[in-house]
């Protein structure tokens, strides 16, 4: 049984993939992650390990939630965890220039 997650709490996350999106004509990539401490998901290390039905649900969620706002969105093919970590590192370097950081990747 899944534990409830309350708003504002912190969870250890593990990025397992990247979902490139185009939202209103602009890139809006999404990091796909699992809770690193959830026994049901913590063994996943890459997006390709998720069941196809789960991937379809994720894709459909992002396609549909924008339709409710009458906005156009395009979801591209999922990319592996390496791409997710590269996107995270790039974002951190843009948001925190000059800040030294490292990302710990558990496998």
Automatic annotation (TrEMBL):
Record-annotated membrane-spanning stretches: none
Keyword Protease: no
Reaction equations catalysed: diphosphate + H2O = 2 phosphate + H(+)
GO molecular function, one term: inorganic diphosphate phosphatase activity
Gene Ontology CC: cytoplasm
One annotated GO biological process: phosphate-containing compound metabolic process
Alphabetic keyword roster: Hydrolase, Magnesium, Metal-binding
Transit peptide found in the keyword field: no
E.C. number(s) listed in UniProt: 3.6.1.1
Cofactor: Mg(2+)
SUPFAM superfamilies registered for this protein in UniProt: Inorganic pyrophosphatase (SSF50324)
Family statement: Belongs to the PPase family.
Name of the protein this chain belongs to: inorganic diphosphatase
Species, as recorded: Triticum turgidum subsp. durum
């Amino acid at each position: 049984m899944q534990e409830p997650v309350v708003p504002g709490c912190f969870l250890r996350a593990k990025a397992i993939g990247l979902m490139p999106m185009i939202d209103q004509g602009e890139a809006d990539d999404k990091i796909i992650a699992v809770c690193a401490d959830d026994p049901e998901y913590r063994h996943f290390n890459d997006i390709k390990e998720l069941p196809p039905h789960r991937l379809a649900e994720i894709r459909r969620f992002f396609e549909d939630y924008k339709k409710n706002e009458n906005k156009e969105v395009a979801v591209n093919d999922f990319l592996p965890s390496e791409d997710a970590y590269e996107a995270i590192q790039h974002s951190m370097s843009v948001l925190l220039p000059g800040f030294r950081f490292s990302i710990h990747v558990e496998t």
